């Protein structure tokens, strides 16, 4: 799959933009603050229904306007698909595919992308919640039905926590205990499905991350992934923290057995603290570099390369397993943080991806092999090369 054309109306600093794109590398060049990242943010939204920069859709609507439109023409083999989403300040967002209305949540079925941006450094250095979100977003791209499992699980956790708070405030009553056991069953059922799916995904990702990191940093370095599951831990802290990870896939059946045991063991603590202490919402993805936890040990450059490797591995998994074909690989302001050797190795690693979109403030930061189709951006406008000196 690749994007042949992107059109924006009142999106970020673009009153209007029309941009033809090519298969293979596409380079967006411009000084900071000109709108390069806004272009790739728009495409990322079509894939994930979210921004990697802000938490609300309203921030992406041009100041003073009530709506913004992102429209893209996609090529998938011989098939062409026109996808569109309208972001609204005062109403629900609306989406179309080939001019026919669809539910907005269905958009990612038609387009997949993997975006790496400076914010992704938090995958290595940040809290477990970001790593859980990374896994869950990839799971949904691979298997859309899991979106419902994840949403239902989050809802059960919230409702169970509400019941625990009520029980702590009033003293546990017989009816509350019965209701809690009902929520326990639902929590275990949904959570065990999610644990199996995540551990299976991590088992697939781990060798791809190892290969991706070696391709960027060289063979003297080794990166790995393991799971840290709260159903096998103590559940005494809000976030589990660092520790040894678990290898391999945990079946839903095995997860359910251990999940139930952990809930029974932690019942008193949960009632005292009025919070669900065990489950996928407390798990972590352990990142290891040369046998050590990357969080806290990796340098800035190593952390950057590790976060990039996670995204390259995700793209490789999607290329192999996704029904929508190759995802579009988006690299936002990546090359400025890499030395020349790593730039060249990264270029070699991605040159065969069906479409790559790259942003850079400095043209020469990007290896020549990735500059074949260069687009210059200035003040929210696509600039012809002949006008660059004007």
UniProtKB/TrEMBL annotation:
Q: Name one GO molecular function term.
A: ATP binding
Q: Which residues bind ATP?
A: 30-37
Instruction: Please tell me where this protein is predominantly located.
Output: cytoplasm
UniProt keyword annotation of DNA-binding present: yes
Keyword set, alphabetical order: ATP-binding, Cytoplasm, DNA damage, DNA repair, DNA replication, DNA-binding, Nucleotide-binding, SOS response
**Gene Ontology CC entries for this record:** cytoplasm
Q: Provide the GO biological process annotations.
A: DNA replication; DNA synthesis involved in DNA repair; double-strand break repair; SOS response
- Subcellular locations according to the entry: Cytoplasm
Domain annotation RecF/RecN/SMC N-terminal: ranges: 3-364
Question: SUPFAM superfamilies under this entry?
Answer: P-loop containing nucleoside triphosphate hydrolases (SSF52540)
Instruction: Tell me which PROSITE patterns the record gives.
Output: RECF_1 (PS00617), RECF_2 (PS00618)
Spell out the family assignment given in the record's similarity comment.
Answer: Belongs to the RecF family.
The protein's job, in short, is: The RecF protein is involved in DNA metabolism; it is required for DNA replication and normal SOS inducibility. RecF binds preferentially to single-stranded, linear DNA. It also seems to bind ATP.
UniProt protein name: DNA replication and repair protein RecF
Q: Which organism is it from?
A: Homoserinimonas hongtaonis
